[in-house]
Amino acid sequence: MEIDALIKEKRKNPDFNQAYEGEGEKLATAVALYHAREAAGLTQAELAERAHTTQAVIAKIERGDNVSFEKLQAIAHAMGKTLTVGFK
User: Fold this and answer.
1) Would you say residue 14 has pLDDT above 90?
2) Has this prediction a pTM greater than 0.90?
3) Is residue 55 part of a domain?
4) What is the number of alpha carbons within 13 Å of residue 4 lying toward its C-beta?
5) Is the Cβ–Cβ distance between 44 and 79 less than 8 Å?
6) What is the count of structural domains for the chain?
7) What is the CATH number of the domain that holds 42?
8) Is the Cα torsion angle 38, 59, 68, 17 positive or negative in sign?
């Protein structure tokens, strides 16, 4: 069975589907931070210093770990940006 077919089958289970979507949202946040940091020309360490956190925290967020809105706001502001949250 191909992976896409397997995922489609598994997503019929409401618990699996909820977890799958949640992980996808965390990944989207991680990728968005990575791209914003790269576009700003900053290393993880440089961004961490500006945001008054550690490089390890930036790395964890970019891997998809949970993070507070306050921490994301501080990181966004450190890049001269604002944090925007949307619902689809």
Assistant:
1) yes
2) no
3) yes
4) 0
5) no
6) 1
7) 1.10.260.40
8) positive
